[in-house]
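Lab notebook: predicted structure, single chain.

Context: the supervisor wants predicted structures on file for every construct in the current expression panel, including those that have not yet been purified. This is the next one on the list. No modifications to the sequence; it matches the entry in the shared construct table.
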Amino acid sequence: MAIWRWIVGSCGNPALRASITSACPSINCSISIGYSVAVEDLTEKQAKAEHARLQAEIAGHDRRYYQDDAPTVSDAAYDALRARYQRDIANKPGEDEVHARHILVDNEDLAKKIIGDLKKGGDFAALAKEYSKDPGSDHSGDLGFFKQDEMVPEFAAAAFAMQPGQTSETPVHTQFGWHVIQVLERRHAEAPSFEQAHDELRQKVVQEGVQKALADARSRVTVEEFNLDGSPKRATDTAVPPPAPKP
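Prediction complete. Output recorded below exactly as produced.
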């Protein structure tokens, strides 16, 4: 009979358990990660039922994590993630953000005409309403604040090179068409709160714990290779003999 239980708590690796349970605490420190370890006397049916029970327990504990009645067993894990948040996120400056609006058209000549109209005192919002084909912005072409990696590279490079009040001197070409861009504001984004960063931090800690455990396991493994006849392989087994001397 196959005997399996699908929990990290039975894997015998305290470093791995500590890393994972610090990121995703459970009352009995048994966290499912989707692989099996042969342990105590459980039938396959019982093991699957236990696995389902543990998953439900973990999900329920996560929902209670920030509530006032959260179990005190999570305090150490909570403090560890808090410390990680303070070290990696809270005290670092936020990313630059730009507030811009644009007018998107199909061809360069029309974009150049719009730039000319703006230089003559044309109203950006009125021109956007008349010409822009962008369905993602409002009628004034306003895109709100965005980070550099949230826009296609050509658009982002142009927008982040400008200061508030500036309009692109030449049309900016992207896969969507030709843009006339006007920057309205620049700012440093605030760092995310602990609650906002919690899930990403927890996932990072889990991954680091797994990688550390795997590296440690690999460092203690000795690999021996054998020939088909059962004899140990030697370095010379695959050596190519030198060519026969010419007569």
